[in-house]
Amino acid sequence: MEGRPTGSAQRRERIVFETDSHLVVGDLTLPSDGYQARFSDVINREDVAFLPVVDVEMTPLGGGQSVRREFVVLSKAHIRLAYPLEGEA
Length: 89
Description:
This protein is mostly beta strands. Helix content is 6%, strand content 48%.
C-alpha cells in the first residue's frame, strides 16, 4: 500500500474516556515511537473526528450494567475527559 510505512511498530495504550452518559475504557493503538506516538498527539489532531477503540468496557454514569465490546468508534465531539489508565501495560 502506498503512503503506509511498512513494518512500523505499534503499541496499545489503555485509555479512560468520559462522555456525558458513559465511562468508556478501552485500548487505543498508537505508534511505538516518533510521529503521533503520544496519546495527546492523537486526541489533539484536528483532522481526526473519531477514535477506533478495541477491547472496550462501557459503563453508564447514571448506574446500570457495563457492556463489553470488541470494537467501538468513539466520536471526539462527545468526549468530555480522557486520560491513560495508570498501572496498565
